Amino acid sequence: MSFNLSKYALNTLCESISVYYHEKAGVCCYALGPGDVTTPGSENHPGEIWKQTLTDDPGICGGFCVWLTSERRDWLSGRYVIASWDVEKLEANKDDIIIEDNLKFRMVV
């Protein structure tokens, strides 16, 4: 439960930073998930499911960060992205992401 709450808090903080500081100071803030990688926390979980599920190379996150910061990607500021996503598909969906305000946490009633 604490893991989920901390992730939600981080995403909300990132969105708030983007809302309050992007236009005023040009700050871009991205909530970045590293992909399905093994972490010290996941290594301690019992069962084989984690070994079968967490198969992404940790280096993917570094490559994604290079792409993310190689030019200004204001359209992703304040949004949640995952390092293992295909960046060409992400860019192809840019307009929809902006128009529909996607990649943000919302409660729909």
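[next item in queue]
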Amino acid sequence: MYPLQNSQDLQPLIDDIGKRPIVMLGEATHGTHEYYTWRTAISKRLIKDKQFRFIAVEGDWPDCYLINRYVKGYENDIQAVLRQFDRWPAWMWANWEIVALAEWLREYNASLPDAEKVGFYGLDVYSLWESMKIMMDYLKEEDPQAAQYVKQAITCFEPFNEDEQKYARQSLGRHCRDEVLALLRQIRFRVQHLDSDLEAGFNTEQNALIAVNAERYYRSMISFDNQSWNIRDLHMMETLNRLLGFYGKKGIVWAHNTHVGDARATNMHKEGMINIGQLARDQYGAENVYLAGFAGYKGKVIAGDEWGAPMQEMIVPPAMEGSIEEILHSEFGRNGLLLFEDNKYRDKIGHRAIGVVYNPERERRGNYVPSFMAHRYDALLYFDDTTAVHPLRQEPHNEKVPETYPFGI
């Protein structure tokens, strides 16, 4: 295992990535400082040294598109942009670590022509109502006829009062599938005639696609299988494909390990679940996709004790005996980079996964994913003692942005 102390220690990883055009960077939680800062360190190297063109994250498209506008110079206050993130769990992207990344991207883009600026986007499917509202606000000025199709879709959804659970429960009797499909067809037909900035048509079509896939996702919530999970990851992959097509270049993905690590190397596969790591390897070939997981032995994390609960800083206890985290702690006891090209971690082993809802006292019951590590990832970044991410709603330390790059990137 290679030591991880500063950004220079990433060279073995950068070399191992080689010329692969798709790099996916995982995380074992949605609230750990080190996962954000080291993903930033890797992303900066890929952007500067290998000309990667965008970062696509496990976040809502409309919210992340505001970050995209900021890093490309259209918005002027990144903190104001991030404070608009109001969907729980807002701390995932409204945090000081993202402030620092966005400011670096903006500075990097400043001297580049518009067509070469690096972008920042959301891959997720949740933003049904937000996407329709954005389309309506834009098209009522740019294309009033297309706006009528948005209005029809909005009218169909109005009885559900922006309540996804209510729509899921009542969709067996009445749903809005036809309306959103008609909307997507019209947008795709008309998008070529939208003559605003370079991304206006792309953004509008993406919001129409979200309306279609989100409607399907929320309708699937009443089922007792894993259909909704698969719909979500299929949408993420479709969005990634659109971004790769739009840029014609190379892209970076930030998402949880459960999305990034190949599902076929875990018990997810037996349950009929797929993810973007698996889908990307299938579509582009493993030789063109690099999957890097993240892991931590103990520390602190930001999470909620139930869905929608106030965020809190929680203790992450030492990892379960026999897990990959506990083994790496026992064998090395320090931060490190593990490359799976030729190593002994090929048997099935527990690998910790913490979501936005977390209870440290119960984690042994369901927070470990049985995994064939060398098949799930190409590499694993391991941290022996982690700290919590810094949510934006908290004051920055010493009235400034927290030290998000302690190793001098």
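[queue empty]
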